[in-house]
């Protein structure tokens, strides 16, 4: 097949950001937060995905910039392998899939609606709550508005539509009303968006990789995030500091256990919860779901990531590739599996794509 690899490189998006800021003529105090480009792809990741796809397909790399639509229209690939994030707005992860729909091009991953719903944490939680899927109690606070008086503490404050732990710092967990007010004000000002305030769950934390499509999903070995191995005094969360500062290739933060050392009954419960979440939100091809236990030891959905991170090196501690390796997949196997899943959905790609429908619910 001819596959277009759509990515958002750090250099490419930085260039787009510079043009946007110049056009807007913003003052220095209006500069974006320092972690603004955290979701963008490293050159190493882009090359690793390209090389994996190239073992079986013809690959056309395309930056998800202002010219992406023209490039897609000109190349007319058989399939778009999408890892692009884009930069602005609550629907930025939907931009490239939306262009694919306009051009009638098959693409990997979930559709624009699902991507938009999952990036806006409150919308995903509202749907899951309707279906009686456990998730922490939450409140939405708009910029310039005081947090409601009935918020239960301790709580955690997050930007409403960010990923890659952007805006989630060690200070995001608050125990006092004055800290809550200060953190809400800080995040709404810096990220120019509402915040979601969630009741903080202090139980064990897991992340769950899922491959495939309804009605059959393959739930990969569960990864546990061991908070006991964080630096002394750190809050028990996988914060921006834990993901990008304390954890480096030269000095990895060894807080991940895969497969998670948990009883069979809990593992089964988490697997069923992850598969149900994928069915409810109509996730396609791949996903990573963050889960945490509440005071009763019951798993709760924290966040749903239908466009998961896929850093290629084991020392990068990227959780979906880590879970895939534990299941026996190489990095190339993982990337090809996702392409095969998408091809099977669209009825293209031949026998390899048909075989991709294996899995377990």
Describe the protein.
This protein has helices spanning 10-24, 43-54, 68-75, 95-103, 112-119, 121-130, 177-191, 240-245, 264-281, 319-326, 331-346, 351-355; strands at residues 2-7, 58-63, 79-82, 138-141, 155-159, 173-174, 195-199, 205-213, 216-219, 223-225, 256-257, 285-293, 299-305. The chain has 361 residues and is an alpha+beta fold. The protein folds into 3 domains: 2-107, 3-Layer(aba) Sandwich (Rossmann fold); 137-199, Dna Ligase, domain 1 (2-Layer Sandwich); 205-355, D-amino Acid Aminotransferase, Chain A, domain 1, CATH 3.30.470.
Q: Which descriptors would you attach to this protein?
A:
36% helix, 361 residues, disordered C terminus, Rossmann fold, 12 helices, Dna Ligase, domain 1, six-stranded antiparallel sheet, alpha+beta, D-amino Acid Aminotransferase, Chain A, domain 1
């Amino acid at each position: 097949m001819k596959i277009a690899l759509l990515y958002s490189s750090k250099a490419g998006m930085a260039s787009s950001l510079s043009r946007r800021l110049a056009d807007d003529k913003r003052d220095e105090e209006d500069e974006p937060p320092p972690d603004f480009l955290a979701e963008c792809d490293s050159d190493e990741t882009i090359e690793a995905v390209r090389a994996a796809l190239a073992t079986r397909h013809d690959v056309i790399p395309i930056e998800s910039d202002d010219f992406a639509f023209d490039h897609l229209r000109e190349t007319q690939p058989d399939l778009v392998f999408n890892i692009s994030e884009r930069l602005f707005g609550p629907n930025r992860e939907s931009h490239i899939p939306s262009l694919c729909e306009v051009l009638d091009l098959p693409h990997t991953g979930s559709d624009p609606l699902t991507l938009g719903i999952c990036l806006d944490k409150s919308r995903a939680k509202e749907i899951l709550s309707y279906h009686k899927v456990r998730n922490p109690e939450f409140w939405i606070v708009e910029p310039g508005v005081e947090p409601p008086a009935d918020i239960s503490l301790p709580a955690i404050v997050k930007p409403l539509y960010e990923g890659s732990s952007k805006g989630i710092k060690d200070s995001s967990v608050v125990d006092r009303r004055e800290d809550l007010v200060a953190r809400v004000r800080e995040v709404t000002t810096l990220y120019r968006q509402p915040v979601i305030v969630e009741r903080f769950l202090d139980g064990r934390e897991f992340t769950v990789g899922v491959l495939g499509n309804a009605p059959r999903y393959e739930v990969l070995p569960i990864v546990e995030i061991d908070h006991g191995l964080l630096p002394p005094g750190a809050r028990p969360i996988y914060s921006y500091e834990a993901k990008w500062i304390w954890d480096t290739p030269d000095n990895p933060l060894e807080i991940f256990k895969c497969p998670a050392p948990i009883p069979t009954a809990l593992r089964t419960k988490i697997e069923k919860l992850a598969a149900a979440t994928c069915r409810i939100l109509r996730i396609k091809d791949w996903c990573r779901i963050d889960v945490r236990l509440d005071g009763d030891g019951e798993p709760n959905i924290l966040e749903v990531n239908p466009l998961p991170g896929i850093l290629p090196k084991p020392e990068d501690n990227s959780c979906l590739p880590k879970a895939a390796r534990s299941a026996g997949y190489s990095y190339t196997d993982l990337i090809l599996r996702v392409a095969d899943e998408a091809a099977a959905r669209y009825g293209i790609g031949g026998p390899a794509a048909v075989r991709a429908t294996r899995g377990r619910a």
